[in-house]
Amino acid sequence: xxxxxxxxxxxxxxxxxxxxxxxxxxxxxxxxxxxxxxxxxxxxxxxxxxxxxxxxxxxxxxxxxxxxxxxxxxxxxxxxxxxxxxxxxxxxxxxxxxxxxxxxxxxxxxxxxxxxxx
Length: 118
Fold this sequence. Notes:
This protein has 118 residues and is mainly alpha-helical. It is built from six helices and two strands; from the N terminus they run H-H-H-H-E-E-H-H.
């Protein structure tokens, strides 16, 4: 797991920390738009140079990659109109993610802020 988290792209790490934040708040499984919104609200906690802004399609791609790596679990929820939508939650312990990413150059400050908020 350690190697998977450290070898993830900085944007994937950022998205993962957004899922951690939602998980700590009890708001998972979360849809991609919830994760994107959380990420946008935390841009000031990271060095933006590597990935600029937060586009929902990029968030969806990162969520899929993290689910393929078994870092996230993918669930299917139903919208008010009856459409199935993918939703994501942690498949690993939140503290494990924070421990591994606290020293990451790009997202370390975000991980530290989440730990301080907990």
